[in-house]
Amino acid sequence: MRLTHPSTGLVAWGNAWLTGHVGLDEAADAVERQGGPHVVVGVPGENGELPLRRGLGAFRVAGLAALRLALPAPGDPLGLTGPPDFNAAAIDTGEAVLAAVGERSLGLIPAEDRRGSSYVGTRWEVHETRHGTPDTPSLPEADHQLTMAVRDATEALLSVDGGQEWRPEIAEALSALRESHRHEQVGGLAPGYAARAHRVAALASRLAVVVDLARSTESAGLSAAHVQRRAEALRTLDRAVRRARVAACNSVLDPVG
């Protein structure tokens, strides 16, 4: 599981801009601080690639109203609406942005953009997608699922024999997660999001670190049963993290009340 996703920043700051909480320059600067220069290819009515500011501005002229995050995985097309070719590309990348642009539904898939020896940025390819609201959890649902995942999965990971031989930061991160979920945390999104969305996004980011550390740890010396138990726990964490991130980023579009 990737710890950072350019799609998360684009959705959070793009929606903050669309809802009037930040200006276009502030939104674009925030997105590019996370992933270097961004260019967009395939913007309606435009030729070639556009810098992020011009791309967002052109989308706005075309009727951009909202951005939604998708963080799919094999067997779990979280946040996607089709068609199959777009879904397959998004699943292969592990992320996408769905944009409501006038009467059209468009999908943006990021890729690393390397040019020469020093330029590293992000290139967005625009695709046509199907209309429809993806099947994703609400913020309260994702918050509850994340709470259960922290409780159940961390207990499973810490109870696996040989866990003492893991890199020590794993146990430290797990202990910090248990404590951090009891407190409000702010961070990871953009202005205009509710405190609960900030807290869920922040916790999901910390949980992603645990998953990454645990997956990078060798399972040598563990029994087959323990290897299976750890793998199941990590799948649980991965699923909860992706749903929490999607729900937090998309929550600004949820109906009020």
Give an overview in words.
By secondary structure, the protein is an alpha+beta fold. It has helices spanning 6-18, 24-35, 52-62, 84-93, 139-159, 168-180, 195-215, 224-250; strands spanning 38-41, 49-51, 64-70, 96-101, 104-115, 119-128. A six-stranded mixed β-sheet has the order 2-1-6-5-4-3, sandwiched between helices. Strand 4 and strand 5 form a beta hairpin. Helix 5 packs antiparallel against helix 8 (224-250). The chain starts with 5 loop residues before the first helix and ends in a 7-residue tail after the last helix.
* Number of H- or I-type helical stretches: 8
Strand order of the largest sheet: 2-1-6-5-4-3
State the low-pLDDT regions, or none. Answer: 161-166, 181-187
Helix residue percentage = 40-55%
Note the beta-strand portion: 15-25%
Task: For this entry, give a set of tags.
alpha+beta; 8 helices; 257 residues
Give me the secondary-structure topology.
Blueprint lengths: L5 H13 L5 H12 L2 E4 L7 E3 H11 L1 E7 L13 H10 L2 E6 L2 E12 L3 E10 L10 H21 L8 H13 L14 H21 L8 H27 L7
Parallel strand pairs: 1-6
Antiparallel strand pairs: 1-2, 3-4, 4-5, 5-6
Helix pairs in contact: 1-2, 5-6, 5-7, 5-8, 6-7, 7-8
